[in-house]
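General statements about sequence and structure are easier to judge against a single worked case. For one protein, we set the task of working out the structure tokens from the amino acid sequence alone. This step matters because it turns folding into a mapping between discrete strings. The amino acid sequence and the backbone structure tokens for this protein are reproduced below.
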Amino acid sequence: MDRAALKARAREVIATSNPRVLTVGLVYLTICIVLNALGARVMSVNISESELMNYMRYAAEGNYEYALEYLKTMEPPTAAYAINSLLKVVSGIIGAGFVIFLLNTIRNRQPCFANLLDGFAFWWKVILLNFLQSLLIGLWSLLLVVPGVIAYYRYSQAIYILIDDPTKSPVQCLRESKTMMAGHKSELFQLDLSLIGWFLLSMIPYLGYAAQIWSVPYIGMIKALYYEKLLGRNVWSYTPDYPPDYPL
């Protein structure tokens, strides 16, 4: 697969899209940032100066067991963990909606801002798929780093498969992704390596937010085009040669 041509096509689609991929991507990023900020606020702990001094005094006196018990009393409540988990789930569903928008843009299927909410039409499958995918990758990672990386690429196309046919079960999507990525895992790994500069730039505090305005839609578009290429479809034309297979 020609990585340079794929990236050039991604830039072309972004430049000529309507609505603009960068604008929808900015809305998606804003929603994610707000949800993450809410989660961080919910999970934050307000420790008074006296409480901090007590903890340090217990630790200095060697009473480590009591110090740890005292520290546990300052942990966020159970409800905070539940709310934070819910916010992450919502973020994942909206992420699926952004993928729907990208595929609609590539396939010229009347993409729109409302696509960001389309993932809620099969939200429980998105949640279950994300959970199973994380579980499988985590279990393989317990062996060594390399098996975990291989598992990540093995199941990387599952969300696209689910979006293309929401009637499929998450397990079926994972199995089909495994089949689809047979012989292609190293190819996608090399594609990610060629994008590592954008990943690193996006991690820089504050500057990373500005970089993500371009990197998130750009990388997302490249990955969506890659999926299309795996299906053997023509990514160089906006004219679809197949009917819509999920609601717009």
Remarks:
- The longest helix spans residues 78-106.
- The chain has one domain: 3-42+78-230.
- The radius of gyration is 21 Å.
